[in-house]
Amino acid sequence: MVKPTIVVDRLRIGIQGSGLDIVNDLSFSIAPGEVLGLVGESGSGKTTVGLALLGHARRGAEIKSGSVRIGDIDVLELDQAERQRLLFERLGAEPRPWHARFVCVVALAVPGRATRWFRGERQGELVEPRSAGYGFGYDPVFLVPELGKTYAEMAPAEKHAWSHRAAAVQALIASGALAKLQG
Q1: Does 60 share its domain with 97?
Q2: Looking at the structure, do residues 69 and 114 belong to the same domain, yes or no?
């Protein structure tokens, strides 16, 4: 049996200053070569869980309990600088450039019709942290080569224009699928 690369155990994420949970008692594991898709309605906690896998909580949320282990390391016990140090330590033996990408898939689901999927991707490189005070998480180390900037060096409007999410929504719009819903 292959040992999982990522193990999430009893993850609980709530709204800061309240007893309300966004995610409660979530556990799963991902083995090498496996892919996990988080699927759910808007507001169901997909992004919240994805951020927790990186050791982050979105604004207004807090990780209340549980663990997210990558190998033997619980990323929830590390601060951002420690997570970045660990990333570059593991990449150190690999030749540069260190290619990376963010991917988003948007689904258009209409009753009585086949679900359509629209993919957005932003390819980039991992670089030593660079920031102008924007962003969070991996934004300071994700370089968009076309601009020569990391996401953390971009003002929010510029980052959104270059995001993988924007690319997925643009693919949906370009397909004409939304216009066909009105007709």
Answers
A1: no
A2: no
> Which backbone phi and psi does 135 adopt, to 5 degrees?
75, -175
φ/ψ (deg, to 5) at 25: 60, 50
Q: How far is CA 179 from CA 106, 107, 114, 176, in A?
A: 16, 15, 16, 5
The model carries a pTM of 0.71
142-152: per-residue pLDDT in tens?
A: 999 999 999 99
Tokens of 76: 């929830």
Tell whether 20 and 50 lie within a shared domain: yes
Domain coverage including residue 153? 93-183
Residues 53-91: pLDDT tens digits?
888 888 899 999 999 998 889 999 998 889 888 888 888
